[in-house]
């Protein structure tokens, strides 16, 4: 210390601590000259003493002016050392860096000025302190004093120049420093960081692309900054990196894909658009590297397909198509279960477009990896069944296509029909609103006869008799009205002349017995008029209730549709179709005379040719029931009649009638049991008001059983 004082005149030291800048500057020039002479003489110990004096007595002094003098003195000493400065930098630089945190803004300003002058002298040797200098500049970039910010900016530009021309800069040591600061929110710091990323990326010898995953998330975070300038700078940097990725053969897609997936869900539109654009390019370029990340990528794409921003939707759809077109092998890490999990999750999305694409993915996976998808079916089936209750018809139709694809084998077909029956039972609204659509579409996709036979088999064994009746009525109405089931209706019409029609009739009959009107409808369709009449005759008083009359009303109206045109034409030959007449008159006798259905059917029967219908009915009891079949040529008549007789006998109508009566007996017992149960636990309201069970309004009917407006006062009418 004494050596330092002896080397610098007292007047110089006094001026170095003066409050006037000019005096401090002149003192610094004196110190520069002294140090230069000592350097020429090789007196490095004395130079160290001078630097130590400037550090301890001035740069670290409690007095602000002395600290300012110490900083300018250290810069002057460096200038004096010139080429010899490198060996003294460890003494010179630390006190200057410490001054960057000084509470006095002017001291911080002079610290920037001093370090700028030091850096100009030592250039490349300065790299040794780069990390500490970078940390200090990062803080100064957000300094409250604009003058300090300006000085730090000038110093920053010089340091960038030094780094870009240096061959000693270590990007490996710098990246952790950069990564730690990428999530800072201060706009000045963000500009500072983006500036450094851009500069370093422009240096050919520095591979910033290889370290992109370390700071990519931070750049994306800046896209939502409130400052337009920062967003623009971040976007520019990202665009440059994306272009480099397109031109580079070696890119770490995996780590970056994880970041992009997160950013694709950002609340900021610009961030989502940029992320989905990157994902789009990655899907095109990534190849096998991205296989393990397909599920995550899909999870990011599907929500964006329904984005409110059109640009995002367009890119997301394109990316989705690109991803689905890639054929990956599970052996290469393609996780089918993970993809299915994403698709299942998105089936509950609030957006229709996303739900539709999720179903397309399940369908595509089934087409390519059927066995693997089937093995995960237990996790997927419930979601697919829930999709049938979707508010969108397109979603329901797609879900049915997926179900049909799954149900190609018998085991899954049986399971599908069984679960549909349970769903309809548990959710009557689904049956009412979607039942017809679901059944009709399944008949198209899986063969109508196969579908109806399986429904019938399930409903035959159904223990919930009320539901079975409603379900059979729904299936019957679909059978009688849907264009998709025209071929099936044609087969039922051949029940008395072909064995295939006979088998179908017997299969449906066993469950159609749950509903008298469905049974009668089936017989009319099969032209088994004798049996239809027998069914009508077997009905009891308790069978003819409001629900029955509602269904009868529907049937009478259906008889006027083109589907039953053949039946109306048969009325032109009352002599041949006497059992048809008896059946229709039987239906007429059950209808209230004031009802519209009664008038419709009576009007139709009045058009029957003017034979005496009563005379025709007298002889019906002794005729062969199958004598009503259309006549053929004389040569084929006997052979055809024999064939009809065989088929007719094979159906065994007496046994069918017994089967119907047994089922109706079960329904009667069930109704009585429910009535007794309600009577045994009467509600408080019914006890107080003394309402009888017969006068209490019935519970609301499903739409498929709801009466037309003309039946509003039906309860006062008697058949």
From TrEMBL:
Residues 430-608 form the Vacuolar protein 14 C-terminal Fig4-binding domain. Belongs to the VAC14 family. The keyword Calcium does not apply. Keywords: Membrane, Repeat. Residues 664-719 are annotated as: Disordered. One of its GO terms (biological process) is phosphatidylinositol biosynthetic process. Residues 676-690, 710-719 have a biased composition (Polar residues). One of its GO terms (cellular component) is endosome membrane. This is Vacuolar protein 14 C-terminal Fig4-binding domain-containing protein. Signal peptide: none annotated. It is found in: Endomembrane system. HEAT repeats lie at residues 92-127. It comes from Musa troglodytarum. Its main location: membrane. Residues 665-675 have a biased composition (Basic residues). The keyword Membrane applies. SUPFAM superfamilies: ARM repeat.
């Amino acid at each position: 210390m004494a050596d330092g004082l002896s080397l610098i005149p007292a007047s110089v030291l006094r001026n170095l601590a003066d409050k006037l800048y000019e005096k401090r500057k002149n003192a610094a020039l004196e110190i520069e000259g002294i140090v230069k002479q000592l350097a020429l003489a090789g007196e490095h110990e004395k130079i160290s003493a001078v630097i130590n004096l400037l550090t301890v007595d001035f740069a670290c002094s409690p007095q602000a002016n002395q600290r300012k003098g110490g900083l300018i003195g250290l810069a002057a000493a460096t200038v004096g050392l010139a080429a010899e400065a490198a060996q003294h930098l460890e003494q010179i630089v630390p006190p200057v860096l410490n001054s960057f945190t000084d509470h006095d803004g002017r001291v911080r300003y002079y610290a920037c000025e001093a370090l700028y002058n030091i850096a100009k002298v030592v250039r490349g040797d300065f790299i040794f302190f780069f990390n500490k200098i970078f940390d200090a500049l990062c803080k100064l970039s957000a300094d409250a004093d604009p003058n300090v910010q300006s000085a730090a900016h000038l110093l920053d530009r010089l340091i960038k120049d030094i780094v870009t021309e240096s061959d000693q800069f270590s990007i490996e040591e710098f990246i952790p420093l950069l990564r730690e600061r990428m999530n800072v929110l201060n706009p000045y710091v963000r500009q500072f960081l983006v500036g450094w990323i851009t500069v370093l990326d422009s240096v050919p010898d520095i591979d910033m692309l290889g370290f992109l995953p370390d700071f990519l998330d931070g750049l994306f975070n800046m896209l939502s900054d409130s400052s337009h300038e920062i967003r623009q700078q971040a976007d520019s940097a990202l665009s440059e990196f994306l272009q480099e990725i397109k031109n580079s053969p070696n890119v770490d897609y995996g780590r970056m894909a994880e970041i992009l997936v997160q950013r694709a869900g950002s609340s900021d539109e610009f961030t989502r658009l940029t992320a989905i654009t990157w994902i789009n390019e990655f899907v095109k370029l990534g190849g096998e590297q991205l296989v393990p990340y397909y599920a995550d990528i899909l999870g990011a794409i599907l929500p964006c397909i329904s984005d409110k921003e059109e640009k995002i939707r367009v890119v997301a759809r394109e990316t989705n198509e690109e991803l689905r077109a890639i054929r990956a092998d599970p052996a290469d890490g393609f996780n089918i279960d993970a993809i299915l999990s994403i698709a299942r999750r998105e089936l509950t999305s609030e957006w229709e477009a996303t739900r539709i694409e999720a179903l397309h993915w399940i369908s595509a996976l089934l087409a390519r990896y059927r066995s693997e998808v089937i093995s995960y079916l237990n996790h997927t089936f419930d979601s697919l069944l829930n999709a049938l209750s979707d508010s969108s018809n397109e979603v329901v139709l797609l879900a049915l296509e997926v179900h049909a694809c799954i149900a190609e084998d018998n085991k899954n077909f049986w399971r599908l029909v069984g679960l549909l029956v349970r769903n309809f039972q548990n959710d009557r609204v689904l049956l009412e609103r979607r039942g017809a659509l679901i059944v009709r579409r399944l008949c198209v996709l899986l063969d109508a006869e196969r579908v109806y036979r399986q429904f019938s088999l399930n409903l035959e064994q159904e223990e919930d008799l009320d539901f079975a009746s409603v379900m059979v009525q729904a299936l019957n109405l679909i059978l009688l009205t849907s264009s998709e089931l025209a071929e099936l209706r044609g087969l039922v019409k051949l029940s008395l002349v072909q064995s295939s029609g006979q088998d179908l009739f017997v299969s449906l009959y066993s469950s159609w017995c749950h509903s008298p009107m469905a049974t009668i409808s089936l017989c009319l369709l099969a032209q088994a008029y004798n049996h239809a009449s027998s069914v009508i005759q077997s009905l009891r008083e308790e069978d003819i209730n409001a629900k029955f009359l509602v269904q009868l009303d529907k049937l009478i109206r259906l008889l006027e549709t083109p589907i039953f045109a053949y039946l109306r034409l048969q009325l032109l030959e009352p002599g041949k179709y006497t059992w048809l007449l008896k059946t229709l008159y039987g239906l007429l006798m059950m209808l209230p005379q004031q009802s519209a259905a009664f008038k419709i059917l009576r009007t139709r029967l009045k058009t029957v040719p003017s034979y005496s219908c009563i005379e025709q009915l007298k002889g019906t009891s002794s005729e062969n029931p199958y004598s009503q079949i259309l006549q053929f040529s004389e040569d084929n008549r006997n052979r055809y009649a024999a064939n009809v007789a065989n088929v007719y006998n094979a159906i065994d109508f007496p046994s069918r009638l017994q089967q119907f009566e047994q089922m109706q007996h079960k329904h009667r017992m069930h109704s009585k049991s429910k009535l007794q149960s309600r009577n045994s636990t009467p509600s408080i309201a019914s006890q107080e008001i003394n309402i009888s069970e017969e006068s209490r309004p019935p519970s609301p009917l499903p739409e498929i059983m709801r009466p037309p407006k003309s039946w509003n006062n039906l309860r006062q009418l008697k058949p």
